Amino acid sequence: MEYQKINITATINAPIAQVWDAYNNPKDIVNWNQASPEWHCPSSENDLRVGGRFKNKMAAKDGSFQFDFEGTYTEVTPHNSISYVLGGERTVDTTFTDENGSTKMDISFDAEGSNPADMQREGWQAILNSFKQYVENKTS
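Structure tokens predicted for SRPBCC family protein (140 residues):
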């Protein structure tokens, strides 16, 4: 199946090592992995290696809805890039680039077919913005 690629980006005012650690450590993931204040991430598991899996529970704070966001890593290059597969087909590629002490993150993902592409872009960007805010607040 052919998927539409969606790209999002953010520049985080922190060095790559700090950004990488906060992006991949379950103790950090539960603090930033939500698209809006009405949502949270009550649990996270991450086996960051090729063939390893991750699973993040995403839940509405009012208890009305929850789901597991999970995938399998296909490529992991520390402090540089991560690729994984969602549902056995959709791919996600994330790169980390040093920009004079800040870190630029670029994420490219295959859109799923049940929601409009703009909605998916906005949701993923909101999560990335939450990550940026978390890391910058943590390091300041």
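The helical segments are 16-24, 26-32, 117-139.
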